[in-house]
Amino acid sequence: MASTDLPATPATLVQQIAGNVLDVADTAIPLAVVEHTKALILDSIGCALAAREEPAFARASRVFAQLGGNPDCTVIGSSRRVNLSQAVLLNGILIRSLDLNDAYIGPGQMGHPSDNIAVALSVGEKFRASGLSVIASVALGYEIYCRMQDIIPARGTWDHTTASALAAPLIAGRLMGLNAEQLAHAAALSATHGNTLAVVRTGQLANSKANANAMVASQAVLCSLFAAEGMTGALGVIEHPRGLSTGMLAGAKLALLAQPIGERYRIMTSAIKAYPCIGTAQTMVAGLLQARAGIADPAREVQRIEVVMADIPIVSAQAADQQRRYPESRESADHSFFYLAAAALADGEISEAQFAPGRWLQPEMREAMARVSVRTDASLNKYTPGSYPAVVKLILQSGESREVEVIFPKGHPNNPMSPAEVEAKFRACARGRMPPAIQEKVIGKARELEKIGSVAELMNDLAEGETGSNQT
Questions:
Q1: Is the peptide bond before 385 cis (omega within 30 degrees of 0)?
Q2: What pLDDT, on the 0 to 100 scale, is given for residue 198?
Q3: Position 277 pLDDT exceeds 60
Q4: Contact 167, 223 (CB under 8 A)
């Protein structure tokens, strides 16, 4: 057989995925997907604005101020401009810091695909991509990210942000106009180097929780820029015996990743959070707030709080993590079932206010946490995967008890926020950090994002936030 007659080398999974991502035209994204994507983009921007005072952002920002760089991209809510990779990292930290951004509940892991909206906004701004192109890139990036969550074995060695090492370069490369070969190499480079260990989300948590996806995404954008210049990656990164197939994806059904895109969009099942805390606690918080209603002095009148949750690996591991019973950091507090229950009981809300510095260390809060018990029950598993059901029972000093079951919290796909509710959440996040007039400009741009010629228009509005940061 002559060399010209040799069979073509079969496309690797990363090549198939890159081809699928480029096969979907911007205009082919269904209207319902466009609308939900716009809501998620606005929600993520609001989460970023609300996190402007968080330490992780401030520390990273100071480092980049020392390094300098081309002022190409906006830092959300600031007139300051930085280079592309810095913007992705800073905006990614902002979106993630308060644990208020979205949640996708896969059968294997829960993740936060909106972390990568920082990629779409910053790369879109740098390359003057249209609003519709940004929407399409986000929806397609979600699809690959969420497919990864669907097949990742639960509670493994690798953190769920490792999925972004595959999804983020696809978002960036599509907006940069990479061809299929370049895009495959961008994804291969990123997936080879973008793995995150699950210790980042274990025990007493540190700033690295907020930084985790942002670090992966920033590197993914660099990999996309490298690929645009012809740099190549290991195209067998997924299925090779020394690739993800024997690492993060050991035993996973890899073929799902390469299925054509379009029959369904997993972004439609990504929830918008009502409370700034871990996704597994959204139902518990909702139930506790309902149960305490009408009690004159809950902190005094409630003798103990009993929480029952589904007996699934992610919840069981979190409930059993004794380091979370008495959190010592902001990052641990919003991941502590015990602190969240105590704070919701005392204050009647879970918002930014409950995470004022050191609140979780106060004696009265430590005493309240001691009155919280959390256990799992397999009878609730019938509602999983797809939700984290919870039953909350308050036992009062009088002997009376109150019990509330919540299967789908507000913002869940089965209990969605209306457009007005999403906009109200944005305004609450932006209050005091962006003048009301600019808030309305941003909301207006988000509503009609698919009609905007360049997403830089939206980013320019976001840069005005700092001007009136003390206004309400």
A1: yes
A2: 86
A3: yes
A4: no
